[in-house]
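Project standup — Tuesday

K.O.: blocked on the structure for the chain from last sprint. Re-posting the sequence here as requested.
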Amino acid sequence: MTEYQLNQPKRFYNINDAAYALAFSKFLVNELGYFPIHQFITEDVPEEYRGTIENYFKSLVPRFLPRSPSRRTAA
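H.V.: unblocked you, prediction finished:
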């Protein structure tokens, strides 16, 4: 699927249905050490499950959740 190289980006976008998006993201984060930028769900998830799915993605890499622009530091 991918070859690990030092010059390879460590962030990814994921566009998939809910089940595959979570599984694929878990693999990329836990096995390859990548960081998710955005997760896009392509199916119409019922309202009762949206919060649960969102919490799964938030718990995947909680320390990398977006910060408010006022807290960002200059590089």
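K.O.: great, moving the ticket to review. The CA atoms of residues 1 and 15 lie 16 Å apart. The longest strand covers residues 35-41.
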